[in-house]
Amino acid sequence: MDGADEDAWSAVAEGWAELWGPFADPVRRTLLAAAGVGPGTRVLDVGCGSGELLAQAHGLGAQAAGADPAPGMVALARAQVPGADVRVAAAEALPWDDARFDVVTAVNSLQLAASTADALAEAVRVTVPGGRVALASWAEGALNDLDVVERAVAAAAGEDVPQDGPLREAGGFEALLAGSGLTVVAAGLVEVPWEVPDDTTLVRGVLLGEDAEGTESGHRTVVDAARPFRTEAGGYRLVNAFRYAVAVTPA
Ligand SMILES: C[S@@+](CC[C@H](N)C(=O)[O-])C[C@H]1O[C@@H](n2cnc3c(N)ncnc32)[C@H](O)[C@@H]1O
Fold it and tell me: Which residue's CA is minimally distant from atom 4 of ligand 1?
């Protein structure tokens, strides 16, 4: 799944929440701690998906708000944190006033914006001066077991192997934030394992967004490629990594 098509993301929202929703929790915890989120912090999560970060922030006592262009995702996020201010909106045009939040986060979503620079400018606009912008997403493919499987799927389909974008490389987020006048105060790498109990769940997760025929025809390729990550219990454990960076907005 890639691209910024809100209909496509809405169509897979339930599957995303079930198969991928919790897996980035370790980096969400790290990000919220590094951004100093606690009781009363006003947090906006951009590209909030099915609302897992909102739930964590709410659990810390923060006032959680979310934005996502996919109505299907927004519905799930609202259900995760009833009463949270979750709006249908893209990162490039956030429907909130200036300086409305103490912390703005984006996990695995900024790369989907048509313009990363516009999306970051919007995040900065709605953050108070001296507040924090906190970003996280996939590290480069070489650090992700999932990359092995995705390469096999691409090869079987005769497609180009997906390339790493600049935000995936070490220092990518830091360069983006510093280049927009923010001061980076924390950055790092967090392991995010993805675990599934069986072949069927593995294939559904890897091929999320494919129709029944595509899922059926890709089944063998996915299972064969994932063999090195098979557990004794018959499931799979793919170890991946996310990079994150937290920066202070200009006073
Ligand atoms: C890979 S999911 C990640 C969701 C969530 N942040 C998480 O960590 O689970 C990407 C999300 O970004 C949303 N998205 C797509 N284009 C976007 C844009 N231009 N601005 C903000 N979010 C976008 C999608 O609708 C989807 O919910």
Answer: 49
Residues with CB under 6 Å of ligand 1 are 4, 6, 9, 21, 24, 46-49, 52, 68-70, 73, 90-92, 107-109, 112-113
Q: How confident is the model at residue 27 (pLDDT cuts 50, 70, 90)?
A: very high
Q: Which atom of ligand 1 is nearest to the CA of 10?
A: 25
Convert the pLDDT of each residue in 34-65 to its tens digit: 999 999 999 999 999 999 999 999 999 999 99
Alpha helices in 12-100 (DSSP H): 13-19, 25-34, 52-59, 71-80
Task: List the end-to-end C-alpha distance of the chain, in Å, as a whole number.
Answer: 38
Q: Could you give the CA distance from residue 75 to residue 82 in angstroms, rounded to a whole number?
A: 10
Contact between 65 and 84 (Cβ < 8 Å): yes
The alpha carbon of 231 and the centre of ligand 1 are apart by a number of angstroms equal to: 30
Ligand 1 atom closest to residue 52's alpha carbon, by position in its atom list: 9
**Domains located in the chain, CATH noted:** 6-141+162-191+242-248 (3.40.50.150)
Give 91's contacts (C-beta < 8 A, 6+ positions apart): 46, 47, 67, 106, 109, 110, 112, 113, 118, 119, 122, 123
Residue 134 has which token pair? 């906190």
Instruction: Tokens 């409305």: give the residue.
Output: 100
